[in-house]
Amino acid sequence: MHLLKWLYPGMRFKRWLLLFAAGVLLTSIGLTIVFNYKYIDGVEEFIFRIVYTATGTYNYMVTNIVGFFVSFIGLMIMLIAMRMTIRSIITVLLPDSSEKLVDLIYEKRKLDRGPAITVIGGGTGLSVLLRGLKEVTNNVTAVVTVADDGGSSGRLRSEFGIIPPGDLRNCLVALADTEPLMEKLFQYRFAGKSELAGHSFGNLFIAAMTQVTGDVEKALMESSKVLAVKGRVFPASTAKIRLDATMQDGTVVQGESQIPLVHKKIKRVHIFPRVVEPVPSAINAIKDAEAIILGPGSLYTSIMPNLLVNGVAETIKRSKAVKIYICNVMTQPGETDGYTVSMHVKAILEHAGIGSVDYVLANNKPISPPLQDFYAKKGQYPVVIDEDEIHALGVGFVKADIINETNVIHHDSEKLAHNIMQMVYGLKTDTKRRKKRSR
User: Fold this and answer.
1) Which of 17, 116, 306, 339 could form a disulfide with 139 if both were Cys (CB 3.0 to 4.6 A apart)?
2) Are 289 and 320 in contact (CB under 8 A)?
3) Sorting pLDDT into bands at 50, 70 and 90, what band is 104?
4) What's the average model confidence in pLDDT over 162-177?
5) Does residue 40 carry a pLDDT above 70?
6) 363-400 pLDDT per residue, tens
7) Would you call the peptide bond into 296 cis, given omega within 30 degrees of 0 as the criterion?
8) Can you say whether the dihedral through the CA atoms of 163, 164, 168, 169 is positive or negative?
């Protein structure tokens, strides 16, 4: 059964096996011509004598059966020889994976045929989604916010003049196909009271790689090689931007980390400088996407900064891809207090424009009363699904169980990926049906 797996559709192996067999056949014919047909006749006569001696009769079908049997044995020997040759090479290159080579190739080919998905956002929500998507497609790209000004990222940003690496690091680790130890290393945060205290190793690594290569995009590409990343990670812009918020009372708060602290209702967010150029690779990823995902993540401080970069929102609106917004499960104090699902969507449409969201995916799994009480003490409440108001915005709506409820509430990577893929393929099917009907 393991050998037959090499013949599965999409392995790109059968064509070379047939070519190898054709080469063996041509070589055999050539050798037969060189050494004369009489040797083949001798083999046939030898088979005739054995069969006649054993049975007392002879049927020429026996020769054909023996011929087919010999050919089958030859093909099996060729397949085994080729497999062992490849395995011998792979054992040197990937010693830990040589036993499951066929599974690795099959999985890689399957994932390579997955849809092109571009995810836009930041924070922990984005990395949660990426962990699920990398299991269903290799064609995933993360476009990440660079407005973070707090913690380790903020310190590196101010000290070295680079874009904040924290969200970029989380996305790289989420898409990594590497040893758990390497993941722990990149996420390791130094303790103590030294100047390194609070910094994560991954942030320092990206900062150092940026200094060495002189370009953050190249630094991310090289870092991706170290982590064997499935997919790509790009910042929305390489410009050093600041996120500001204008509140309902007219006051302006400067800095992404300061916005939630004032506990006022946000009217609109802005970036400073107002016009910054996007990373071309990020724009191309949006253009080439079959599905564009916004979130999950903080509405104003993780998703919006990307949409305010010059050209990003316009490219999303012009795209023919399926555009899905994944709504947060709980409200965020100082940012989305009292927000319903439609209010989240409306905020995106006000900042990015009509056509930036086609569908919203929201959680409908009930949250247990003890957890609701736990979050209520922190000022967080379940985001209410108001379907009529969502439809009034001209946006489609899908509700599903997309959370993992343990001692905390957070999105579930596998459930998110499953629902996203169902939406992407389901909407493709609907589009094809409509085209057939219109003919």
Assistant:
1) 116
2) no
3) low
4) 91
5) no
6) 999 999 999 999 999 999 999 999 999 999 999 999 99
7) yes
8) positive
Contacts of 144 (CB under 8 A, 6+ apart): 121, 122, 126, 167, 168, 171, 233, 234, 235, 236, 306
Q: Distance (Å, rounded) from C-alpha 363 to C-alpha 389?
A: 16
* Collapsed DSSP state (helix, strand, coil) of residue 215: coil
SS3 357: coil
The per-residue DSSP string of 65-117 comes to: HHHHHHHHHHHHHHHHHHHHHHHHHHHHH-TTTGGGHHHHHHHHHHHHTS--E
Q: Where are the domains of the chain?
A: 4-109, 114-146+236-438
pLDDT of residue 272: 94
Q: Are 372 and 329 in contact (CB under 8 A)?
A: no
* C-alpha of 40 from chain center: 57
pLDDT surpasses 50 at 438: no
CB 291, CB 359: distance < 8 Å: no
Q: Are strands 396-400 and 359-363 parallel, antiparallel or unpaired?
A: parallel
Q: Which helix (H) or strand (E) holds 52?
A: helix 38-55
Q: How is residue 340 written in tokens?
A: 């319903």
| Residues linked to residue 49 through DSSP beta bridges, in sequence order | none
The domain 114-146+236-438 belongs to what CATH superfamily?
CofD-like domains (3.40.50.10680)
pLDDT-derived band of residue 146, with 50, 70 and 90 as boundaries? Answer: very high
Range among 49-58, 71-80, 379-388 with highest mean pLDDT value: 379-388
* String of DSSP letters for 114-160: S--EEEEE-HHHHHHHHHHHTTT-S-EEEEE-----SHHHHHHHHHH
Question: Distance from CA of residue 121 to its chain's centroid?
Answer: 14
Residue with tokens 């050494």: 35
The helix or strand, by DSSP H or E, that contains position 429, with its residue range, turns out to be: helix 413-438
Per-residue DSSP letter, 378: T
